[in-house]
User: Fold this.
Amino acid sequence: MTDIEGLCEPRFAAVRAALAASLGKDDVGASVAVYLDGEPVVDIWGGYADADRSVRWERDTLTGVNSTTKNMTALCALILADRGQLDLSAPVAAYWPEFAAAGKESVLVRHVLSHTAGLPDLSGLNAVQDLYDWQGATARLAAQAPEWEPGTAAGYHALTFGFLIGEIVRRVTGRSLGEFFAEEVAKPLGADFHIGLSAEHDHRVAPLIPPPSLTDEYASSAPPGPDGTRREHTGPAIRVKDANSVAWRRAEIPAVNGFGNAHSVALLQSVLANQGTAAGVRLLSPQGCEPAWQEVFRGEDRVLRTPMSWTLGFGKFGNTFGWGGWGGSLVASDPDSHMTVAYVMNQMIDREQQEDNRGMEIIMAAYSGLR
Assistant:
């Protein structure tokens, strides 16, 4: 039986058991947190921070959560909207005039948040290093034409989501998204989550471990459609070795390069599940949280090749909202029960090789504690 450390209220014992089972089977190191009414009821971790299993996973271990970062980027936009600094129904060009080029005058902020803006790819970028050039990437997006009429279809904006929201935030606040997030979101809550990681934290990072039988050349890709074909992808392929690099940590890629652990992810997202407050700190009004779970698009996602329900910034799944990252991390929030569940790990699983139910088993275990 794997040793599990941390806080777990007795009624959530099934969550501890689920993490222990996962560490005994698929996981190398992982953390799990459950927040209820803005307070922690589960904050546990176990296993190892390295593939050799020589370094213990600690409470303050950080790892890259890939697209789970999108939840944080969306939270920044909703906070600005709640403060009256950002109109979610306004054209993006109202804040970023150059964006109106190539027929994008009608792209609204809400289209960007709901993956319906028609800009799922960054055209002309061939190397991961290009993602580290904020001005270059956003200038390309400003010049690009949408693939479809904005608002009429959805297609997961895997990388562009962060550049689009991030540039809007920069134009509104004068700060990069990583800076705004650190100062206005993470700091008030004391949350150990970073979009762009400074060198002082490097020693705490647990590198991502490629899926079994694969190497660190393993790259992210869009899933194949029902007929087995893949959507053409024009952006750079991001490999595990890229996500583990120092250059990746230092950059700001707000769709995908957040670093944290389960307790920081759950703490931050519990704000939205708990009417705008967590740990006694208010970041939004109750009304300002509602766009996180109000559906604005339902239908086939052109990139994910599956039916999706999108809110302003999140995937909607029944009564819950949230999103996960390449390899397995995820967060889900339930505004009805005021509960948020997060799972962060270093061992990646390739869903085309095997099913990955680790996060869902944690979530179901958390619900058993509410009965």
